[in-house]
Amino acid sequence: MPAARKLDPRDLGRLHARPTPGPRDDAQRGDRPLGLGDKRDGILFIPSSYDPARPTPLMLCLHGAGGEARHRIDAIRPEAERDGVILVAPDSMGSTWDLLRGGYGSDVARIDRALGAAFHCLAVDPTRIAIEGFSDGASYALSLGLTNGDLFRFVFAFSPGFMRPLTQVGAPEVFISHGVNDPVLPVRCSRNIVPSLEAAGYAVTYREFAGGHYVPQGMLREAMDILQSAKT
């Protein structure tokens, strides 16, 4: 029997799901469970304007530590409904994402399954796929987004603490916001992250605001505008 191929650690954070062209059936609008088959599942949101004949932007949404998919869906749904953006928001398996609990693993696999199911049943524009997150979710969005820059064209990180991509693929555009009075993840976190990204050649939009550990509506709106203005 041939020896098993040694797994390259850089493969651990890689996502394999990709949108594919072709006709799609109509889909029920609004929220539905992702159907990951676990106690912690997640939510798929389909805007009322969704047209299966027209490829639609999609955003993967990652909640903060101790949170759940509903926290991101509730915050972003009004903007996604206005702009016609599909939202995929999984729950982490534990209290936060796998990378922050020791390394890429179960959450990457679940995200891959959730995206694969969305790509299979929905018409998704491959040039307008984004990943976003808040707090621990923002750290995970940066790490997973840079590792999968051939899938995600945009990375939106709201109040991140760090980034830890195992490899860097593609060149997604990055938007980061952070409150200068953040008592949970100090603003110095983003002030360290941004120069590192710029030195690596990424296009970065950075916004600081007078506030704490939250996402101001204006910051979310700016990120959504970036997604909407992308040339297809």
Biggest sheet strand line-up:
1-2-4-3-5-6-7-8
Domain module count? 1
Unreliable spans? 1-8
CATH class (first level) name = Alpha Beta
Rg computed from alpha carbons, rounded to a whole number of angstroms: 17 Å
Question: Helical amount among residues, as a percent range?
Answer: 25-40%
Write down the overall geometry. Answer: globular
Q: Ends: how far apart?
A: 48 Å
Please report which band the strand proportion falls in: under 5%, 5-15%, 15-25%, 25-35%, 35-45% or over 45%: 15-25%
- CATH architectural designation: 3-Layer(aba) Sandwich
The largest sheet, given as strand count, sense and whether it forms a barrel, is: 8 strands, mixed
| Order of SSEs | EEEHEHEHEEHEH
Based on DSSP secondary structure assignment, what is the total number of beta strands?
8
CATH superfamily membership: Alpha/Beta hydrolase fold, catalytic domain
The number of distinct helices, counting runs of at least 4 residues, comes to: 5
What's the mean pLDDT score?
93
Q: Briefly note the CATH topology name.
A: Rossmann fold
The chain-level structural class is: alpha/beta
Structural overview:
Helices cover 29% and strands 22% of the residues. The N terminus is likely disordered. The chain has a single domain, classed as Alpha/Beta hydrolase fold, catalytic domain (Rossmann fold). The protein has an 8-stranded mixed beta sheet with strand order 1-2-4-3-5-6-7-8, sandwiched between helices. The longest helix is centred in the middle third of the chain and has 16 residues. It contains 5 helices and 8 strands. With 232 residues, it is an alpha/beta fold.
